[in-house]
Protein 1
Amino acid sequence: MNNPSRRTFFKTAGLALSSAALLDAVDGIKTQAGDPPLTLGMASYTFRKFNLDETIAMTKRLGLKRIALKSFHLPLDATPDQIRETVQKVNDAGLVLYGGGVIYMKNEDQVHQAFDYAKAAGMNVIIGVPNHDLLDLVENKTKEYDILLAIHNHGPGDKVYPSPRSVYEKVRDRDPRMGLCMDIGHTQRLGLDPGKEFVKYKDRVFDLHLKDVTSPTPEGKTIEIGRGVIDIPKFIKTLIKHHYKGTAALEFEKDAKDPLPGAAESIGYLRGVMATP
């Protein structure tokens, strides 16, 4: 796709490099004041075909410090000892295990399991999809455990939480620890502008899944960030303008068996955008 902002970025950032070179990119981009304008992270679903050790190693190669683990890498039925071992591996690698998910909650047992799991792992946020009839119980658990619940929207075809609005309408009058994990790809696939959606619901956006898609329709597929139809520079600037403080996690669903080059290109592009006034 001939995206002018993308061409400008590659020229400015000097990224006429191979994907392999991008893997050793600078750890982060900072503002002139020295503070990172956004906190980037990794949704480990990106590395769903790889084990925990490989996932940690690739996340480190991308220069990221924060990770949310999917059950591929920390099973929901893990024992306390297994959870401690996993957390120790993440910590020893210099990473922060800030969250877990996406975690589906279709019955009361799964709600209790999700919160016990998150508490044992020291997670700050559960990226979850609780059934509507379980929201009262979920609200009680967020209060009891003091853990954020960020409900993930899954776009066209999802009958539970397709859009950011569908989440917001369910949580806006509930405990302030209940909010959204806004997936900007699925949001765009609904024909919605992710930036405008973020601004509408920003008071409850606790987590973000960053990606790009090939078209603003249900048929859109994940592609390297900057190659698709989402106006990424505009979206990033919107987050910065509104002082978003959560994690903006890459969820790269393309090339499941070889995701690292595309993930590196995507992170490199995001860093270039963040560094461009």
Protein 2
Amino acid sequence: MADHIVVPRERHGIELDEFLCLLYPLLNKGFLRGQIRDGKILLDGRKTMPSTHLRTDQVVSIDIDESPDKLPQAPVSPRIEIDVLYEDEEVLVVDKPAGLPVEPERWQRGSACLSGALLDLALRRSELEPDSPAEASAGLNFRPRLVHRIDKGTSGVVLVAKTLEAERRLREAFSTRDIHKSYLALVEGEYPLAAGEFETIDLPIGPDRRKSGRMTVAEKGGKESTTRVSVDHAFHGFTLLRCEPLTGRTHQIRVHLAFTGFSLAVDPVYGRRDSLALSEIKRNYRVKRGRKESPLIDRLTLHAHRLEFPDSEGTVHEVEAPLPKDFNRVLKQLAKVRPAH
């Protein structure tokens, strides 16, 4: 693969590796950075670094000795429609459906994921073909960058930067707690808080040494983890909680709630169910003979509901993701058959 690309005026100041990612959206960024370091990609005929800032009319020369079909590819998930809740020149806020992982799963690299769906969205907006290995003549208008993550089984808001500068600014805003997230969590049990009250769960979290991929409260060696909890709606035997994680540990809300005795109503890892059926909450309910009961919900009862973030001018934006149909269905049934005392 060989190309000589003149840097256009609108790309002045961009870093070389970022420029290449826009030109070749389907190629892996790590691979492109390695090619720069190996001298396979030159700037004005000279070897340079991936972070070099480009100037208008400089020439980027690409000479990669690989056929397009053998080049490392970035994940693309074509034809998965992701709802965009908010957009400006710097960011996207999208509504991730439950069951869709944020990044490619380790043992299923070719399966759908949010990052791939976002790249597909950017490709379609730039009128590029998702089955083409490279598009140096046009390139992307923007390359989506995930600023944070939510679990595969969790639905709701995810913040995506459209530029490298926005990504760096938003990551800093997360570290200084200037970005606020609010989740709705349906838990088993009646949480002992009155309306308008809240409490803070402040328990360190670390990896569970007994089971890979699982986290636990770890007094020794755990990282500071804080979650603010209040009651959104009470039912008989269940509670809809509003949870605000003040830190961003893996599985933080799930671990904190389970440790305090109020695990998610559906959570096969930290709770006791992998689904919730009407027969479990409605007294004397019987499935018709010959029929198999379908669950009301068969994924985590956790929804990333609200996100507040500042833009580059300091204006704070608040974006909400509506409750998905399965989550709404459970709440309506609980209100009907399990009203609070």
Protein 3
Amino acid sequence: MKLYGKGLLMTFTEVSSELDADFNEWYNREHLMERINIAGFRRARRYEAVEAEIKYLSTYEALDSDNIASPDYAKVLKTPSEWSKSIMPQFTKWHRMPCRVEADYTCGMGAALALFRFYLDPTKKQKLLEWINKGALHELNELPGIVGSCLVSVDVEADKRLANALGQTVDPNQKTEWAILVEGSNSNVTTKTSSEYLSEKLKSLILSKTEIIIEKYKFLYGDQRIS
């Protein structure tokens, strides 16, 4: 099964250890359900870091990246529940990536996720897409322990609309962040195998003076709309 559309929102979140249990109850029992019932949203998944800067990652699959920054989504952001009001101000770390799905070779749901984040040299975008579309992710998926992968890029305009809805400032010089998500059956094998396959090629495509961020996660929980 592929992703449920051409939009993918990733959010990275962390709270203090004292709040961790309540945070997970809120996320699993209310927050994911609330989000997947927004128009255009279809499926959400949660991951816990094995090795990453921020402890929790959530992915939300939408029909299009415009759904991620739609008036319906902005309305939910502006009218949080009482439970959300008690949890969200206590985030100690938070980052958002509203993305377009550039290539989807996802297949089912893996127990592990390796996330490769990078800033692509804009002059090499076509080289990246040609490499991907000529079979790179398909070949990656054939390697032992890998079950699926996809390429996404941040929709900068959607990110600006979300920032405006939340009253946040926007960096006028914001660079477009890209990511490859690789799913597998074991976090160590998934990360090692995909790193060996992807890293050297990606290093030749990223902006100078930037690095590839590789993060390792395990699957926690997911939910999806029935209709």
Protein 4
Amino acid sequence: MKLLLTAFEPFGGESVNPSALVLEQIREPKGLRIAKALLPVSFSGAPSTLLQKIDRFCPDAVLCLGQAAGRAALTPERIGINWMDASIPDNDGAQPRRSRIRPDGPDAYFSTLPVYAMADAAQAAGIPAQVSLSAGAYVCNCTLYCALEIGAHRKIAAGFVHVPCLPMQAAKKQLPSMTLEQMTAGISAMLDVLR
């Protein structure tokens, strides 16, 4: 099975994005061939880069990783909504407010990855994880929605997992955090479900 695994560059004034560090750490489990890609934190750039990578790699499944400050667990997302409402600009300076991603598109797409089994696998490995019913309305959600849209047309399974902040990020803002080692172990356990 071929999997496209993506993560995001830093954004919002941060010098690091834990999803990108997890992407670097992940090793291919037996039975799964992984192509990795780093996406820009851009409402226009992330979906277009994702499409380019899908065209290049022709994966059976796509799993995107991103950071969600304030969360204490790995959170596979159940749904991507057709909505953008950015509280901060993206890395291109764009800040869409109260607008649809696709004016004529469906209101939402549900993940086509086994999100509950993925969360269970991470928990079984001792890593906090739970299914999330909101990917927000920033670039992560936009990317999830577009990945699911592409997947619906091309018969590719797709989904998204948010990771918490790293301890070094969280200490400044008194937010929950998770170590890179824990994040990597949890995502690795989730990948075992996808083989």
